[in-house]
Structure formats: C-alpha cells, structure tokens
Amino acid sequence: MPNFFEDNEDIKFHLETRDLEAIIRLQEEDFKEKGEFPYAPEDVADAQDNYRRVLHLLGQIAAEFIEPRAEEVDLEGPKLVEGKVVYSEGIAQALGRLAQADLMGMLLPRQYGGLNFPTTIYAMAIEIISRADASLMNIFGLGSIAETIDDYASEELKEKYLPKFASGEVTGAMALTEPDAGSDLQACRLKATEDTERDSWRLSGVKRFITNGCGDVLLVLGRSEEGSEGGLGLSLFLCEQGPGLRVRRLEDKLGIHGSPTCELHFDNKEAFLVGERRLGLIRYAMSMMNGARIAVAAQAVGIAEAAYRRAMEFAGSREQFGRKVRDFPAVSEMLTQMRVSIEAARALLYDTAMVADLFRGLQRQFDVAAKEEKKEIRGRLNKVKRLAGMLAPMSKYYASEMSIKVASDAIQVHGGSGYMKDYPVERYFRDARITSIYEGTSQLQIIAAMGGLTSGTFSAALDEFEFRGLQRPLKGIFGKLLRARKATESAISYIKKRGDSQYTDLKSSTLVDMAIDTYIGYLLLRDAELCKRKVWVAKKFIEDMLPRVEMNAKRVRSGARTTLTHFSTINA
Amino acid sequence: MSFRSIVLAKQVPDTQNLTARAMKPDGTVNRAALPAIFNPHDLNALEVGLNLRDKFGGEVILITMGPWMAAEVVREALYRGADEAVLLTDRRFAGSDTLATSYALAQAVRKMGEVDLVLCGSQAIDGDTAQVGPQVAEKLGLPQLTFVQEIEEVRETGVVVKRTIENGYERLRAPLPVLMTVTSEVNIPRPPRAKLIMQYKKARAPVEVRIEAEREFENYTGVDRDEIIAKKTEERMAALRDQGLLLTEWNLERIEAQEERCGFAGSPTKVRETESVVLRARESKTYDPTEEGLKGLVEELADSRILG
User: Measured between alpha carbons, how far is residue A215 from residues A99, A208, A247, B90, B190 in Å?
Assistant: First the structure.
C-alpha cells in the first residue's frame, strides 16, 4: 500500500536518529498525563512509537486519499457563492478524512482533545501532506493558529475554541496583511474599538491575501490604540466568521489553488482580545510567524520531494538517443543536486523544528519555575531563543528557494512534457513559487537571519558540533567545512568592520547564503557519521558548496557597490 | 432508535498488492511475503455498523476467527472505534472450510444476545467464496441480504437496500434482525483514529501474551519452564486487564461448539488437487492504428468474449 511516510527513508532517518528525548521530556512534562489520558505516552520510547504510528497513518491517508485528488483540486479551486467560500470537493473530503483520523489537532494539549505532539513531528506531517497536495497544507498547517490561542488567549477562549480545532470542526486563519501593510505589518490600519459594555472589541477595515480567510475562527491584527503609529499600537483579536465579516473576493492565483485566498471586509465586527494590548504584533504575531515559517519550509520540502520523485521516474523511463535520459551526465547531475538539496533542506528544517520545540518547552518550564530555578533556565532559554530566531528564517528561506529550483528542474528533466498540464510537475512549480513569498519574503528572512550572523549566534551554533575521531573520508569533509566556516566568518567580520549599513544590506543575501551552506554542511557531516549513504550526500553537498562559499566571500569582501551608486544610471 | 451490530471479519493475505514473491514455485501462496490485512470488504461492513451507531446510537461488536495473528484485526477494529471486539481462536478451529467457519461464527453470534444486524463483507479476497455470510444467516435463521451496494433506509421495522445483480441492482426490504453482506461500493471505510491507535496499540489477546512468554523462555531448559511461562502469562494478563488492554478471546468451549463440527473434522471440503496455471501469450495479432484495425480488434475481443 502506498504510504508517503513509509516510502520516505530520509524522514524516517531523521525520526529515528535525532535525539528527541529532551524535547519529549519537555513536551510531556515528565509524562504527567500518563494514566489521565489513555493515549498519553508513559516514556520516551512510547512517545516515539506513537509518532511513528501516527505518521504511518498520515502517510497512508496522504498517499491513498489526498494525492489522488490533488489534480482535480488544482483544476477546480474554491468558489465564492453568495458571499460564502466553498472549498473544492477534494479539499473538503481530505479535511474530513484528517479530522476522522484525529489529525487536525496535532500540536494542541490533550485537555482540549489534541495529540500534544512537538513541532518537529508536526513539520514532518506537513511535509507529508504537502507532497500529496501542497494547497491542503495551507488549511492543515494553520494549526499554529490554535497553538497561538493556546499560548496567549484567556482560559475562556481556549475552552471555547481549542476543542473545535482539535476535532477538525473549525479551521482557522490569521488575518495580518492589509492592502498597504504587507511585509511592513507595522503599517496595519484595521481599526479596533473597545466595546466596554460587552467586554469585547469592534473591528472595522480590510484585510487582504488572507489564506483560508473563510475559516471559522480568525486571529486578526488590529490597531487598538487610536492615533498610534507603528507596531506598539497593534493588538491581536479573535473573531468568528459571521455577520460583520464578509469575504469580498477570492484571489485568482498562480498556484496552491485548493487554498482559498480571501479579501476580508470587517464592519463593526465583534471580536475578543487575545493576550495583552499592544503586544499583538511584537509578541503574538511574531510567534505565530515563527511557527508559520517552519510550516512553509516543510511545505516547500514536501513539494520538492514530489517533484523530484516524478523527475526520477520520468528520467528512468524516457529514452532518447537510445539511452535513458537519467544516464546522461547533465541529467544525472541535475537529479543528484535535486536530491542532495532536498536532504540539505530537510536536515535544516528538522534541526530548526527541534530548536523551536526546545524553546517552547523551556519557555513553558520557565513560566512556572520558582525564582531560583528561573535563573538557571534563563541562560539556556536565551541561547535557544537566539538560535531559533536565526534558524527559522534560514530554514524558510533555504527550503523555499530550493523548492522552486527543484520544481523548475523537474520540469526541465521532463523536457517538453514537463511544460504540459498532462504531467503534475508544472503544478508543483506553480505551488512551490509561493513559498518564497508568503509568511515573509526571502528578502525579509535574510534580514531576520542576519542578526544571528553578526551577533555571534552563528559561530556559537557551529561550536556546539563535536566531531571527534573522524575517519576518512569524513575527516576530509570536515577539513573543507572548516574552510567554509573560515570564509564565512571572515566575510562577517569584514562587514562588521566596514560598518556601512547600506553595504551590509546589499550583501546580506550573499552572507546568509554562505552561513546556511556552512551550517547545513555541519548537519550533513553529523548525519554522515550515522549512515553510509549520507557520507556521499555530505560529500556531494560540500564539493558543490565550498567553491560557492569561497566565491561569495570574495563578493562580500570586494567592496563592490555599483548597484547602490549607479542604480538609476543602469535602470534608466 | 438504536442498533446493535455484529461485524464478522477475516484476516487475509494482501492479495491486492502482489509482488513477485507472492507465490511459491509450487504454486501455493507464500504467506510470509504477503502482509496480513483486514479483509477490505469487511472494513466496509464495519463502517456500516459504526455509521449506524454514530447516527442512531447502539453498539458495534466485531468478531474475527483465526489464529493468534488475527488479534491484529481486533486491534484494527478498536482503532476505528468498535465498542468491543472478540478474537475467536482455538487450535481445534484450524483447517475450517466455509461450513465449519460459519458454524463457529454462528455459535459466537448466538452468545452475543440480542442483535439487530449481522454485517459481513461480501467475500474475503483470499478465497473469494462469498459463502460464509449466507451460511451464518442460515444457521441463525436470519433473513439475508447479500452483495448490498447501498443502504437506503434503516429503521426498527427493517431495512431497505440495493443489492448488486448482474447488469444492475434489485431493491429489497427485510425485517430486523437481518444479516447483510456488503460490497466495496456501500461506503468508504473510515481511517483508524490516531488517539485510539495510541490507546490500544499495546492491547493483547491472552494467546499473544502466552506466545510472547513462550518465546521469551524458548532457550530456558529448567524443569520449571512451563510453570514460569504460565506465571508470566498470568501476571501480564492481570496487568493488561487492569489497564483495560486485555482483548476478549473466545475458544471452542466459550461458544459451546461441538468439536466434531469444527476445524478439519467439521469440514467436508477436501482439496484433491491444485494446479498451477501459468498464463503465457502464445500467439499475438497486430492491428494497425486505423479505423479498420480498431474495428478488427473490437470484433476479435467480442468474439473471444473479452468484451460484451
């Protein structure tokens, strides 16, 4: 029976070899729910076994139920009928199926009917779903909205909504973007007025490009402080679909057709404050975005996996000049780079997800700790927080650009056939294209990751790796990694010494590329120690990466700023 | 209005996902190469029961007869939300043909008390006899609706169904209690539920506990071996029972079956010979991709009764 978990040795590799113990212990708070809930694990091994079984179930549904419907979903798309959004049939069926299988509340605590799984496992689930139908992930992956409610909303709101999220009875949306506030969310204008009589708020304004804006429960960023400007005047609100809220239009998009993208009109819509006033953007939306970044990275990896598999299949059966096209070195190279870059992105993704889990677990531990204990936890917490803050944007940036490249190359491998709608690779390409845009464009991810490079978080993270007693060829690989690290760090210090913020911005993508290449190199070497095949994956990655890093170092250190000095001359 | 359903299910080799290793050189089934699965049509039968329960209340009880490995079917039923599931297992059931199987199953159903519906898959994908459901109905004296493709109505007074026949269907009405065998068209079986998988994954039937203990002490040669195994088995069964994880297991005595009507003794079907038929293309005809050629191909297919 086809199964998108069982047939994916690389996901299984990460699930089996990553040390999840610390995360599981934090997540399960020393297995306190054992006995209270019949499905709570009793120890680490039991929890890991649960993850495996649930991913098996999900992998089966993805392969047998979701994937066969994906083409139809892409053709059909959602419809706006008398102000109501109707999902395409395949999406509605798939959501029903996932809900039947208890898979809609993976992240939520058990007390609300969730599975209490860590983000790492959830990211694996998103990857598996996205391989079957990337657009379904946009609704499935909005589980981080429920997580935000869980983290910050009042008990009352939690009790009311979280069980419905867990059972799949409701889906959610996060309404942040506005016509004049895209990347720059501080410019949000949607007006929020307190209704003291009803102990609630009223929202008026427009939100645009809202994924699943037709969802039953929305988290909305609104300006609660009248006359204020900037991020500190914004708060987060929860409201339900219904009178006062209208889907004004559905966007017609390049890809992810199954996912409805809505323009929302709020007209004195009743809503409830989530958490504290003024923290809407700077704390809650940011935390939601971090989850969403990991989700999009996982989505991107899933799409790339689907595209790569099709390309391999085609290249192994299509013959030209009397040979399988797979056997022409130019095509072999393309396929190999696709595979290696997918595994590279996956290594970074699950490393990032684990750090995010560690952060969330430590944060929870910190919140309830006694004063003396707090001191002890704080140091670790801050370190993990900085690392998570660097890795999440890196992961999203790398995975999404990789996905677009891999999907594009999958078309290339197919030749003319790939450009035709008869094959799914053109759909994968259209679906992949959004991943470097939403939840923060690549350019914004780069800015977010830069902080980690200049603050020393990057170097500290590399110092954490311990490679002792390496044998050949790992020793040689490690030597190359050290050269990549040196080149990257010298470029970072060049930039810092120069102290020219415009120049830093100009070179930041080059710098972040170098840092990601190097960091992934470390991750792949770590994996190579555990698995023979991975030795060659690491070798291939580093062979390609080291010259690229050294070239990038030259570019950064060149001081070339022609774009800045002669932009208008060239773009005349 | 609520309904109490008994679902009869079988564990079968997965003949729908055949590999080259599925058959031994002598033409018999290589069970080791075929994963054992819940007979697909029986999942449809289980879904009928679960669906009725979810809509109208009541309960769904599954019975599966087979060797100890069939405990997996019991767990699968629990993963999907069956209220109760019974493993009917006994060495004396081994070698049962459809007559002996239906006898044992009918005896087990009798032990269940009042029942509204007995639900079976139309056939098992290994033997494809489609005999067990009807035979159980006969033994229990129940009306039978076989090859049900659609259930139109279920009331306390009876059911109305569409039954698949060649070139169409017939609409039938029957009073309750009734035995139905269903085809794969009747519904899409629900998936297992993640929470129930995690809850029941460690559930074991007594026979499994015993076998586990026997394996554990396989190499132990002390004179008290049997004693130790029995003690371990008892201890573990008690622990499982405390956690609500001991599966229900019935044997020949429990269903008050007559031994001579079970297993080999109760099975008049005797396999005299099996022939391994290897299909080979001996001759081929080529048709041109033209109107003419196409016409010729269709005529040939019609003549050889592959079409029409």
Answer: 15, 14, 10, 53, 24
Under a CB-based contact definition with an 8 Å cutoff, are residues B66 and B10 in contact? Answer: yes
pLDDT in tens, A420-434: 999 999 999 999 999
Active-site pick, A28, A343, A439, A489: A439
A158-173 pLDDT, tens digit per residue, is: 999 999 999 999 999 9
Note whether A343 and A336 are within 8 A (CB).
no
A101 touches chain B (CB under 8 A): yes
Statement to judge: residues B104 and B17 lie in one domain: yes
Residues 6+ positions from A49 with CB-CB distance below 8 Å: A41, B201
Q: What is the pLDDT of residue B274?
A: 78
Decide if B176 is inside a domain: yes
Distance CA A338, CA A332 (A): 10
In this prediction, residue A35 carries a pLDDT of: 87
**A439 in active site:** yes
Whether residue B165 is found in the same domain as residue B288? no
Residues B99 and B216 grouped into a single domain: no
Question: Is the same domain home to B21 and B140?
Answer: yes
Q: Which residues of A touch B194 (CB under 8 A)?
A: 39, 53-54, 57, 101-103, 115
B181 within a domain of the structure (yes/no): yes
Q: Does A54 touch chain B (CB under 8 A)?
A: yes
d(CA A5, CA A126): 11
Query: In Å, how far are A108, A250, A307, A340 from A538, measured between CA atoms?
Result: 36, 44, 22, 8
- In order of A63, A233, B125, B196, the CA distances from B34 in angstroms are 20, 64, 13, 26
In the chain, the amino acid numbered A103 is L
* Domain carrying residue B286: 278-308
Instruction: Give the C-alpha separation, B14 to B22, whole Å.
Output: 9
In the numeric block, which tokens belong to residue A242? 């219904």
User: Searching chain B, which residue's CA lies closest to the CA of residue A110?
Assistant: B195
pLDDT band at B308 (very low <50, low <70, confident <90, very high): low
> A524 and A541 in contact (C-beta within 8 Å)?
yes
Which residues have a Cβ under 8 Å from the Cβ of A428 and sit 6 or more positions away? A134, A303, A304, A306, A307, A310, A407, A410
Considering the domain architecture, whether residues B193 and B236 belong to the same structural domain is answered as: no
Domains, chain A, ordered by start: 172-281 (2.40.110.10), 456-563 (no CATH)
> Could you give phi then psi for residue A201, rounded to 5 degrees?
-125, 160
| pTM across the whole model | 0.93
Q: Rounded distance, CA A285 to CA B278, Å?
A: 66
User: If we measure between CA atoms, which residue out of B175, B65, B57 comes closest to residue B49?
Assistant: B57
Q: Which of A1, A97, A102 sits opposite B195 (nearest CB)?
A: A102
Q: Parallel, antiparallel, or unpaired for β A172-175 and A217-223?
A: parallel
Q: Is residue B102 part of a domain?
A: yes
Q: H/E element holding B266?
A: none
Residue B268 counted as domain residue: no
Partnered with residue B36 across adjacent β-strands are B13
